[in-house]
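Tutorial sheet, problem 5. The two components below are modelled jointly, 290 residues in total.
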Amino acid sequence: MSKQQMEKTILGIHSNIAGDNEGFTGGHAWISVTRNGATTVYGLWPDDHPKTEDNGDGTDIRVGLEGTKFPRASRFYKLNMAQKMKLEKGLKAIVVWRYTNTCASWASELLDDVTGVGIDADDWSGFETPRELGKHILELEKLKGPSSRVSPATPEIRGTSW
Amino acid sequence: MNKLIKTLLIFIVFSISGCTEGRTKMNYKTTDISDISYKITENELELNYTPMMESLYYSPGIDLLESEGEIIIHIRRCSIKSKCEVDAKAEQGAVNKVKFELKQGYLASQIFINEKDNNSSLDILAKN
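Model answer (structure tokens):
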């Protein structure tokens, strides 16, 4: 790995399902952050999920649960210094999982806050779902060209996305 | 959309889906399961598997049908709000681990996941 690659911070957004044929309440969406070549995953999980620890009023942003399994839809962005700082601040925030603030809401909104890229996750009734987020990630990958950790996209200007 | 209306709609959607789930047991599809491995002894099978990660569902364990020298395993999928009874409960970790007693000795080729066909036997699906 080159020195330039080592110093990069790459933000990835992921969903393990995509499209209307998937279940309305199924799947999961999350983000990954690759810092100096090492990747960490972050997702928003409810306290009462058997895979999580109930931490009461603590943040529902959980680290490392997703691994690299089933990333049906992924898009990656290279961050500049200001964006890196916004991201680190966002990851330290206390965020609570609710039906109106799901894993898909959080991943989509964090990406928007950090990069200005809006990838829509709004499904029927305004509930934000992994299937809708996954669908729009795949559409963006097709329209703007594929991205990867090695070859991330540069954040598009707000309003040209979804 | 008005936040109150949105919350109300979501409440209705989840109330309906909660009722539906109470009546039907769901399975994870084979393609939604990874890292399958097993250990078979004369009277016990230990099965390890990782279901697709889902923030509103999980796998509480497995149900199994043992007949005519074969076993069909169903990897159950349940809402985190539901109480799901299963034949063998899974330890919830990075990988789900289930142990259950066998009535007789089996080969991995005689144990199937979800359905009995050539591509669904444990020896084909497992990584070990």
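Marking note: The first strand of chain B starts at residue 26 and ends at 27. Full credit if you identified this.
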